[in-house]
Sequence to fold (219 residues):
Amino acid sequence: MGSIEAGAIVFDMDGLLVDSEPLWGQVEADFARARGGDFTPELARQCVGQGLANTLRVMNATFGFPVDIDRDSAEIVDRFVARAHELALKPGARELLEHAKGVVPVALGSSSSRRLVRAALEAVGLSSRFIVVVTGDDVEHPKPAPDIFARCARELRVVPGRCVVLEDSLAGVRAGRAAGMRVIAVPEGAPDGRGFEDHSDAVVGDLFEAWALLTLRPS
Fold:
């Protein structure tokens, strides 16, 4: 596998930089259970990376209980923020950010709300590490649409083709590709048969492997 040149790096947050998927699973399952639904880990995996509005629509379709996207998203975010202190960084996250510091600009592109992103970054000590932060509140269409990553490139003032996206979800990988960026997939669990190879330049096991692939060259 050859080196991938980056003039800028765009990081996803949930499940990529921050080990938040277990907490998300608990919070969303608690929310659904209070309304009579069993939001299984399999359902949670199907919704990863696509934003809370999509998760709530899946709950409505699966369990039949009514949802109000704005009200229920706010409740789930409140539940998550209250437990943000439980979050930890994924292996290699801090090292990769240190490696890029002062060499190429870095952005964060997340489908989560700005309030949630701010709370998570503060909890893991990364609130001042990104030149640009784009959230689901800032765009019309969440991942897998390219809007979040395209805006990251614009605000970084780096052409998309010089940006490398790091993503753990298939929706995010597809969004990075649709934005015209190079993509390194760092999926949770075995990637086989899940489509990551079809939409990314490389599939790796962790952020240390991603770091080893990158050649940083300022634009």
